[in-house]
Amino acid sequence: MGNKRHSSRKVGEAVCDMQGDLWDLDGIFLISMKQLVPGWSGGTLPSEIMPELKNTGKFHAHGFLLTAEPVAGGKIGLRICVFDD
Question: What is the C-alpha to C-alpha distance for residues 33 and 77, in angstroms, rounded to an integer?
Protein backbone atom coordinates (compact mmCIF):
# COMPACT_ATOMS: atom_id res chain seq x y z
CA MET A 1 0.00 0.00 0.00
CA GLY A 2 2.64 2.58 1.02
CA ASN A 3 5.12 1.70 -1.76
CA LYS A 4 2.58 1.60 -4.57
CA ARG A 5 4.08 3.04 -7.74
CA HIS A 6 2.04 5.12 -10.12
CA SER A 7 2.60 3.92 -13.69
CA SER A 8 1.25 7.24 -15.00
CA ARG A 9 3.98 9.27 -13.27
CA LYS A 10 5.84 11.32 -15.86
CA VAL A 11 9.62 11.18 -15.77
CA GLY A 12 11.81 13.63 -17.64
CA GLU A 13 15.29 12.63 -18.77
CA ALA A 14 18.41 14.48 -19.83
CA VAL A 15 22.18 14.06 -20.19
CA CYS A 16 24.72 16.62 -18.98
CA ASP A 17 28.47 16.86 -18.46
CA MET A 18 30.28 17.40 -15.16
CA GLN A 19 29.96 21.18 -15.54
CA GLY A 20 26.15 20.90 -15.84
CA ASP A 21 25.95 21.68 -19.56
CA LEU A 22 22.93 19.84 -20.98
CA TRP A 23 23.55 17.72 -24.08
CA ASP A 24 20.17 16.13 -24.51
CA LEU A 25 16.83 16.64 -22.76
CA ASP A 26 13.20 15.78 -23.34
CA GLY A 27 10.16 18.03 -23.00
CA ILE A 28 9.11 16.61 -19.63
CA PHE A 29 12.57 17.37 -18.22
CA LEU A 30 12.42 20.95 -19.54
CA ILE A 31 8.92 21.63 -18.14
CA SER A 32 9.76 20.04 -14.77
CA MET A 33 13.01 21.99 -14.40
CA LYS A 34 11.18 25.26 -15.13
CA GLN A 35 8.79 24.42 -12.28
CA LEU A 36 11.66 23.38 -9.99
CA VAL A 37 13.68 26.54 -10.72
CA PRO A 38 11.45 29.47 -11.77
CA GLY A 39 13.19 31.63 -14.37
CA TRP A 40 15.46 28.81 -15.59
CA SER A 41 15.70 28.78 -19.38
CA GLY A 42 17.81 25.71 -20.09
CA GLY A 43 21.28 25.12 -21.48
CA THR A 44 23.01 24.50 -18.16
CA LEU A 45 21.80 23.11 -14.85
CA PRO A 46 21.36 25.85 -12.23
CA SER A 47 24.50 26.33 -10.11
CA GLU A 48 22.63 25.68 -6.86
CA ILE A 49 21.73 22.15 -8.04
CA MET A 50 25.13 20.83 -9.19
CA PRO A 51 26.89 20.55 -5.77
CA GLU A 52 24.06 18.43 -4.31
CA LEU A 53 23.92 16.20 -7.42
CA LYS A 54 27.69 15.67 -7.32
CA ASN A 55 27.67 14.87 -3.58
CA THR A 56 24.55 12.72 -3.22
CA GLY A 57 23.25 12.03 -6.72
CA LYS A 58 19.92 13.64 -5.75
CA PHE A 59 18.31 17.05 -5.49
CA HIS A 60 14.85 17.42 -3.90
CA ALA A 61 12.91 20.69 -3.85
CA HIS A 62 9.48 22.14 -4.64
CA GLY A 63 7.91 18.69 -4.93
CA PHE A 64 10.40 17.36 -7.49
CA LEU A 65 13.18 14.80 -7.23
CA LEU A 66 16.13 15.10 -9.61
CA THR A 67 18.51 12.13 -9.67
CA ALA A 68 21.87 11.68 -11.40
CA GLU A 69 23.82 8.60 -12.50
CA PRO A 70 27.09 8.35 -14.38
CA VAL A 71 26.79 7.16 -17.98
CA ALA A 72 29.31 6.41 -20.73
CA GLY A 73 31.76 9.04 -21.87
CA GLY A 74 31.94 10.92 -18.56
CA LYS A 75 28.38 12.18 -18.90
CA ILE A 76 25.63 12.22 -16.27
CA GLY A 77 22.17 10.77 -16.88
CA LEU A 78 19.47 12.84 -15.20
CA ARG A 79 15.88 11.93 -14.30
CA ILE A 80 13.28 14.26 -12.80
CA CYS A 81 9.82 13.44 -11.49
CA VAL A 82 7.22 14.66 -9.04
CA PHE A 83 8.17 13.47 -5.56
CA ASP A 84 5.47 12.43 -3.13
CA ASP A 85 6.52 12.70 0.52
Answer: 15
pLDDT tens column, 13-28:
999 998 999 999 999 9
- What global pTM score does this model have? 0.84
- Where along the chain do its domains lie? 11-76
Q: How many CB atoms lie within 10 A of CB 76?
A: 21
Burial 28-47 (b: 16+ CB within 10 A, else e): bbbebbeebbeeeeeeebee
What totals of helices (H) and strands (E) does the chain contain, helices first? 2, 5
Q: Hey, what amino acid is at 78?
A: L
Whether 8 and 36 have beta carbons less than 8 Å apart is answered as no
Neighbouring residues of 26: CB distance < 8 A, sequence distance ≥ 6: 12, 13, 14
Q: What is the three-class DSSP state of 67?
A: strand
